[in-house]
Amino acid sequence: KREKLDVILPENDYSLMSKCAIIIQKFCSNEKKQNILSCLRRNINQDAMPNLCRRVLYQRLMVLNN
Fold first, then answer.
1. In terms of CB atoms within 10 Å, which of 23, 37, 38, 65 comes out highest?
2. d(CA 30, CA 51)
3. Half-sphere exposure of residue 4, counting CA atoms within 13 Å on the CB side?
4. CB atoms closer than 10 angstroms to residue 58
C-alpha cells in the first residue's frame, strides 16, 4: 500500500525525487507535483535520463500497474 501511495504522490518518494532531480528540473519543472510521474514517463527515453532514475521509474511504474 505504501509503495502505491508513493507512486500516486511522487513528491513523497525520496528515491525517485533525488535520483531523477536533473530530469525533473530539465523536463518537468512546470508540472504539478501530482503529474511528475507522468512527466517522467513521457521523458523516459531521453538520453539525459540517468540510469538510476530510469530504474526507479520502471519500478514505480510496475507498482502502479499492479
1. 37
2. 23
3. 4
4. 12
